[in-house]
Amino acid sequence: MSSEHQSFQAEVRQLLDIVIHSLYTDREIFTRELVSNASDALEKLKLIQLTENNVYQGETELQISLTTDEEARTLTIADTGIGMTREELVQNLGTIAHSGTKAFLQNLQEKGSQAGGMIGQFGVGFYSVFMVADRVDVYTHSWRADAPSFKWSSDGCEGYDIEELDQADRGAKIVIHLKEEFAEYAKASRIQDLLTKYSNFVAFPILLNGERVNKVEALWLKSKNEVSEQEYEDFYRFTAKAWDKPRFTMHFTADAPLDIHALLFVPEENQERFGFGAMQPGVALYCKRVLIDAQPEGLLPEWLRFVRGVIDSADLPLNISRESMQDSALVKKLGQVVTRRLLKFLEKKASEEVEAYRAFYQGFSRFIKEGIVSSHEHRDALAGLLRFESSMTEGDAHSSFDDYIARMKSEQKEIYYLAGTSREVMESGPYLEAFKARGLEVAYFTEGVDEFVFESLTEFQGRKLVRADQAGIELEDTAMDGESMSEADVSALQSWWQDSMSASVKEVKTGKRLVGSPVVALVPEDAPNAQMRAMMKAMGQESPEIKPVLEINPRHALVKKLASLRESNPEVAGLVAQQLVDQAMLAAGLVEHPQQLATRMNEILEKVL
Ligand code: ADP
């Protein structure tokens, strides 16, 4: 029968070019990629068998057979899975659908061979075969009984040929014509080793030249003491298509309120930090060992997309479809129970393995913060997982809100925090002194997203979280150095200041905050602070101009002098008062045109000298 030639999509050609010419390491991974594709195809068939009755039989045994032929220099990998129709061949082996592919290709080009291990994670696994092959033939018959059979053939360069066949077995048979220098992959012993290394957990029998090589077992259904560390590690690599080790492994079983067998992993690396775009959900859903969905969208909350592994529940109806899964109350419940367990697990890590948790936090704190913003029901548990430095921690030691509460003075009711660009900036600012003088701790948050986090997180275990640079905080009296002006003088100064500066200041008041500074600008409770404004600006939004609440220190020499200057030289006093406001605004990070300050300073100097 005649064959039809088609060109690869441009992205595929680009990818193939990189795969063939730049990735020299780990060529052997192609076996894992193809065996895992075969396994996926069998899992899909198993599910289809439950719901469809017109399944093409062909060979019925669900298995993967590998055949080596040293003489012909070929390796053949055949499965009895769902196979492909013509459209599917074109779609699956001629284009790349994955949305992260562009970013992936760019990264691959920049990082070269280091990125080799990422191949499997981006849905481009099949093409890795062209690292070792100079031609690949795929013989396939779809599970659809009325579909014809096809042969797909390519040298991995510009395009491929598709030809209709009289007959092929159900599934896919991939014949790999090896390049001369990779003849080793036509040796049974080499393939045997690779299967042991990469494909031990495939849930279907694997045969090599007719002999069974793997035992099929669902690790997650075993009890913890029957599973070795090495097995967990191997299973993680298998199920996550990963190359690193799991950072944390959580294996648990429950029978109430739902039957659950879960084996979950936190990876070593947070891929999103390397610019690969948002991760896809990675916890597969099984019902009694039957894969329902390898990447279920609605099972775990979005912010847990970094978790890998398997959840198996015998309570799920086997024939649940992916569409109905999304809104199944049972699946929601399952997700909730597992999420709660995971949070408990992380809490335990945090208290028992401080260093390991810290390393995790460094890479993955983003997800915790995302969870706080988006998952109301888990907010308190997630907030308990936050870590920070504070005015009472030394060096880079980390604290939690629980630590903070344990250190709190008995009369303290609220938790104070500051959000800024760095510890140094916050410590040199004017806000801390009032809290320090009273022995009150202030937690420091330094990530850009923190502002958003505290928009959602307003309390922790019933205690209000209060920004230390905010107006309206009630602080206890404290013994302060220096004598204050008389009350009458203070109130006269205050109203003069207020009146002459009503355009730029919301309110002038004396307060208990200041120890060593003359004035401080406080952000009104309802206004966005500096960090938030910077963010609005970055997003191209106009942020409203801020009129601060100005707190003055009636014990400070400068303030006292200003009070008398107001009578002797109102003009200069007015300039000085404005200058103090602007300096306070500058310290608060709220000044947009600092050059005005210099101009006015010159004016004052000119008048005084
Ligand atoms: P991924 O498996 O990550 O999606 P691949 O490039 O390895 O990416 O495969 C692309 C697609 O080709 C698969 O998603 C699948 O639909 C199809 N495919 C690959 N191998 C087989 C196979 N043995 N049987 C049926 N379909 C397959």
Counting helices, strands and paired strands, the structural category is alpha+beta
Which strand-content bin applies to the residues? 15-25%
| Shape designation | elongated
The quaternary state of the protein chains shown equals single chain
**Main pleated sheet:** 9 strands, mixed
Q: Report the C-alpha radius of gyration, rounded.
A: 33 Å
- State the CATH superfamily name of the largest domain: Histidine kinase-like ATPase, C-terminal domain
- Give the name of the CATH architecture of the largest domain: 2-Layer Sandwich
Strand order of the largest sheet: 1-6-5-4-7-3-2-8-9
Distinct compounds present: adenosine-5'-diphosphate
Spatial gap, N to C terminus:
101 Å
**Can you identify the CATH class of the largest domain?**
Alpha Beta
Query: How many β-strand stretches?
Result: 22
Stated plainly, the CATH topology of the largest domain is called Heat Shock Protein 90
The number of distinct structural domains comes to 4
Which whole number gives the mean pLDDT? 87
How many H/I helices? 19
Please write out the topology:
Blueprint: E1 3-7, H1 10-21, H2 29-51, E2 64-69, E3 74-79, H3 86-94, H4 101-111, E4 133-141, E5 149-154, E6 159-165, E7 171-178, H5 188-198, E8 206-208, E9 211-212, H6 229-240, E10 246-254, E11 260-267, E12 282-287, E13 290-293, E14 308-312, H7 322-326, H8 329-352, H9 354-374, H10 379-383, E15 389-390, H11 401-407, E16 415-419, H12 423-428, H13 432-437, E17 442-445, H14 450-456, E18 459-460, E19 463-467, H15 487-500, E20 507-510, E21 519-522, H16 530-538, E22 549-552, H17 557-568, H18 570-587, H19 595-608
Parallel strand pairs: 2-8, 12-14, 16-17, 16-19, 20-22
Antiparallel strand pairs: 1-6, 2-3, 3-7, 4-5, 4-7, 5-6, 8-9, 10-11, 11-14, 12-13, 15-17, 18-19, 21-22
The structure holds adenosine-5'-diphosphate (ADP).
